[in-house]
Amino acid sequence: MIPTTEEARQELELAGQLNPGPWTAHSVHVGRAAQEIAQRCPGLDGDKAYALGLLHDIGRRYGVSARRHGIDGYRFLMEKGWGQAARVCLTHSFPVADFTKEMGKNDMTGQQSEFVQRYLQGIVYDDYDKLLILCDSLATAQGFCLLEKRFVDTARRYGVFPFTVERWNATFAIKEYFEKQMRCCLYDILPNVKETTFLHEPLWQPPVR
């Protein structure tokens, strides 16, 4: 099951009160991008995609975290019975479905890490998994942007790894997959991509504690 769009909005609003930050605006734009693409692809539901986008980072409701936000969101949404939304909390960070090819500090416990590794090994990505992976890389807190902008921003925060280009190529492949279904360039359907791409904003960093 998945939440309604209104339920998803309410959960994101509450989460933003618990842990204020640009991640909530990013989530709104991810949801909007997912909705716009899904509406143009056979077999996908725009409202469902929007709700999944709103909740993909919901694990951040518990505070500033790195990889742990995925498992935190998964468990929070599973408790609500929203299994597909919970799934996207885990899959959206892995354009390559390999637990060892994730960026950022692994702040999960050993048990949590083993769970996510087994989970990724046991599934095949569906179109909603692919869509949210793509849209996570199309949206900043300010709006929609070229994939390259998000890739560089992420590399500046986390560094580069032997598998960085593999992750980028996997995301570009997903972009091309959906563009074939839409029969257009996805940048043509997302507003203000050029403006947001060239908007200069200070690189967000988690607060020092």
What features would you describe in this structure?
By secondary structure, the chain is mostly helical. The chain has one domain. The protein is globular, with a radius of gyration of 16 Å. The mean pLDDT is 94.
Question: For the terminal residues, how far apart are their CA atoms?
Answer: 38 Å
Give the SSE order as H and E letters.
Answer: HHHHHHHHHH
Query: Major sheet, described briefly?
Result: none
Task: State the helicity in percent bands.
Answer: 55-70%
SS content category:
mainly alpha
**Total count of domains:** 1
Strand elements, count: 0
Mean pLDDT across the residues is 94
Radius of gyration from CA coordinates: 16 Å
In the predicted model, the low-confidence regions spanning at least 5 consecutive residues are none
Number of helices: 10
What fraction strand?
A: under 5%
The dominant shape is: globular
Q: What secondary-structure arrangement, pairings included, does this model have?
A:
Layout lengths: L4 H14 L4 H16 L7 H10 L12 H12 L3 H9 L18 H12 L5 H10 L10 H12 L5 H19 L10 H5 L12
Helix pairs in contact: 1-3, 2-3, 2-7, 4-5, 7-9
Question: What tags apply to this protein structure?
Answer:
10 helices; mainly alpha; 209 residues; single chain
Task: Give the gist of this structure.
This protein is an all-alpha fold and 209 residues long. It contains ten helices and no strands.
